[in-house]
Task: structure prediction
Amino acid sequence: MSAIEMNVPDLGGPGEAEVIELCVEPGQMLSVDDSVVVVESDKATIEIPASGAGKVQSLNVSVGDQVKTGDLMLMLEPAEGEVSEKNDSDGGQQSNAQSALPETGQPTVSMPEPAPEPPARSEPARSGHELPGSPAKESMVYAGPAVRKLARELGVPLDKVTGSGPRGRLLKDDLEAFVRAQMEKAERVAGTLPEVKLPDFAAFGPVERAPMSRLHQATAKSMHRSWLNVPHVTQFDHADITALESFRKAQKSEAERKGLKLTLVPFLLKAIAYALRAYPQFNVSLDIERNELVYKHYVHIGVAVDTPEGLMVPVVRDVDCKNLWALAEELTELATLARDRKLKPDQMQGGCFTLSSLGGIGGSGFTPIVNTPEVGILGVSRSDWQPRFNGESFEPRQMLPLSLSYDHRAVNGADAARFTTLVGKLLGDVRRMLL
Ligand code: CAO
Result:
């Protein structure tokens, strides 16, 4: 049986339309009204249905082609008994264009509500010729051109979406729900960590459970957030605080007169403030979404305080503008408020950098976790007397271990080494802070 032409039906005007989708491929069996191609004019998206049944011999248009009424779309080998009279009588071209139209005489324009029946499944679908996502497979899906267009824009394979319209017709809502579900799934996968499975601890001995305090929960959350988000590096160093300690101890009676205790922390705060001014790349926050660094022109430093309830970090403001006595006084006040759980929210906000001093407790070094969105934290451990070679002999020096953790996205290792070296020098001779 000789092939017949299937042509572009009346598009409703003299203009051209762009082929935006091929719904069939050569070799595929077509039934009457199966979608053949989808074209888009400046007025509408039009789904052109098959005017006859049979096997697609060749497709004569491609996606992106401009077509007009009467252009050849495809050659069809008619199914037995499917040769139209009109085709026989007038050579096919015009009659095929006409018979491509539904009874209304119009192609299917942006299909509104449900068509009577889902398109019949054609042969190749049953014989499994199509690859997943192939035009032919997607054309088996019961959807209008607007939905198909949206699916193309979103990159959604139609055959993966379940239709919720009448007779399983795909609706825009179905596409949106599909995309939402995929995004949620992607987020879950991205946020999924290997699960820590808890054993039955009671199987090994007596146990009891206690709820985590709100503070403990908040700390755990922020530590986890920081640990996962920040590429941490820790730089270790030692500061020779022999001279500083004799100076500090010499201030003891003055401190008592003032009703204060002058510990190492105010000195550490001043040295950090000086180093933050010298290396402003430590006094920043990263705005990754906007690829920007936020430089701060103020120096507010958080101080980690160990309280019976858990860790709190009050912030000492404008450290660079305050003297040691003012800092000692403020530190005592803030630490007392923290231990009494009386800190106000604004006393824990606005920090540029954090100091975590474990020197009063012990240890020779640790790796503190950056308090995001800050980019640096200085950990201080217990000072110790160590023999140091002065070029001629060993002499006892009081050495303070420093552990600087930093966000390696904001700060590079060389700057971290410069920062701790400077802090070490400032603590080694506090007169440098006056320079
Ligand atoms: N080396 C040796 N001795 C030190 C020292 C150091 N690095 N730092 C403090 N000390 C001494 C003090 O001089 C003091 O001794 P005296 O009582 O003989 O004078 C004693 O240790 C206790 O000091 P302190 O802790 O009362 O005071 P501070 O100013 O040094 O510290 C504060 C204040 C609030 C930082 C501290 O009390 C604190 O809470 N530290 C814990 C911080 C923390 O938990 N960090 C972990 C955070 S997350 O991992």
